[in-house]
Amino acid sequence: MVLRVGETEFKLLRDLIEERSGILLGDDKTYLIENRLSHIVEEAGCANFKNFYRKIKNLPPSEQLWNEVIEAITTHETLWFRDEYPFKVVQEYILPKYKEETETGKRSAINIWSAACSTGQEPYSIAMTLLDYYRVSGGEDICRNQVKIFATDISSAVIATAGKGQYDKIAIRRGLPDQKCEQYFRYENGFWYIDQKIIDMVTFKQFNLYRPLTALERFDIIFLRNVIIYFSDHFKKELFEKIAEVLSPGGFMFLGTGETTGGYTTAFEIVEHAGSIFYRVK
């Protein structure tokens, strides 16, 4: 049964969700609260959203009930090689620079962060892109030894799914080229399983971007794609500044189509390659 949420309870829940995750729900998202949280409210033994708010407002973020709220609210839309251009830029523009730095002794590793990785398609697409490049310019072993891909999402459920590297027919058809499917996947009992060497290149972890990033290491490339659209302007400003601090000098950041740093930060400069726009920390 779908419970109805009053205006006061909606605002209280909306503000609490933003406070805990940075996710901003507009005034027109009443239906989303009702449709996605009603079953959680009932399972928590609450008769209505008012009682539910009272129950969760003081829960620490690590509590399972709070995690269920975040799981229900967040959107996990994803596909392989999404928009194509970031992977083309990495292969054609960034990796040749890093390879030259490696050969001259200026670089020993490449650290990449997929900051909203959902069920793993983005970090695995990054790993396949790098393996393809290194296969013809140094060898896969060099790639696996030098490259570290860190992949995070606020949802512990999608992180668990990503780590398995298992995809059904619908997921596998969303953007994955046939050649990549044949090269890096095996089919078994109705599912496609990504090659273990790809899985081994990625470290998955549940992580809330609202938390401080100071405990993270420095990254050369950060994929922050199709996630800031869900954040308030205030948190966008805060997040961009935090991202700039964990990027290595001259490091690169990719945003989603339609996302921009404009009006939020001056910590980045725009870089163009083959008609594509991405960002370099100043």
Strand content: 15-25%
Q: What's the pLDDT, averaged over the residues?
A: 92
Gyration radius, in Å: 20 Å
Q: What is the number of helices?
A: 12
What top-tier CATH class of the largest domain fits best? Answer: Alpha Beta
- Count of DSSP E strands? 10
Fourth-tier CATH superfamily name of the largest domain: Vaccinia Virus protein VP39
Shape: globular
CATH architecture of the largest domain: 3-Layer(aba) Sandwich
Number of domains: 2
Distance between the termini: 52 Å
Helicity, as a percent range: 40-55%
Biggest sheet statistics? 7 strands, mixed
Topology pattern, helix = H, strand = E? HHHHHEHHEHEHHEEHEEHEEE
CATH topology of the largest domain: Rossmann fold
Keywords:
alpha/beta; Chemotaxis Receptor Methyltransferase Cher, domain 1; Rossmann fold; 2 domains; 3-stranded antiparallel beta sheet
Entry summary:
With 282 residues, the chain is of the alpha/beta class. 45% of the residues lie in helices and 19% in strands. Strands 6-2-1-7-8-10-9 form a 7-stranded mixed β-sheet. Strands 3-5-4 form a 3-stranded antiparallel β-sheet.
Could you please describe the fold and organization of this structure?
The protein contains 12 helices and 10 strands. The chain has helices spanning 7-21, 30-43, 49-56, 64-73, 85-103, 121-135, 140-146, 156-164, 169-172, 178-184, 196-199, 233-246, and strands spanning 110-114, 147-153, 166-167, 185-188, 191-194, 202-206, 219-224, 247-255, 268-273, 276-281. The strands form 2 sheets. Strands 6-2-1-7-8-10-9 form a 7-stranded mixed beta sheet. A 3-stranded antiparallel beta sheet has the order 3-5-4. The model has no long low-confidence stretch (mean pLDDT 92).
